[in-house]
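Q: Focus on the chain.
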Amino acid sequence: MTVDAKYKTTATASGGGRDGKTELADGTMAFNLVVPKELGGPGGDGANPEKLFAMGYSACFLGALRVASSQTKIKIPNGTTVTATIGIGPRSEGGFGITAELDVYLPGLPKTEAEKLVETTHGICPYSNAIKASVDVKTTTRA
């Protein structure tokens, strides 16, 4: 597969990885990182890769809905939201894995149209495409 990247951004992590800091090279954003209590860390204020992934995936999927809307001619209702829930934990094969759940709220849209729009969006969204071979994304479509 070849990707013609039209945009790139660069971030650097320092410190202990999950208990350090990450910041963008252009200086527009930086996060202190903290390991969640559930993974043996102190928890508390701070970001972690799963929080950042959830924010990015929800925003990306919502943007991709707009592209899917133009392709399917299904209008996206006002008040549409996408909520991403990302999990991390040990895999049965060893190492760690990611779980992903998307809650797509399309208020007032007929169920068949909402489901078609979400299915089309999964083929467009870069996050969905990046993880489709390794993560079973559970999707709830509400209308």
Remarks:
- The first helix runs from residue 49 to 72.
- Residues 49-142 form a domain with the GMP Synthetase; Chain A, domain 3 fold (CATH 3.30.300.20).
- The radius of gyration is 17 Å.
- The helical segments are 49-72, 111-124, 126-131.
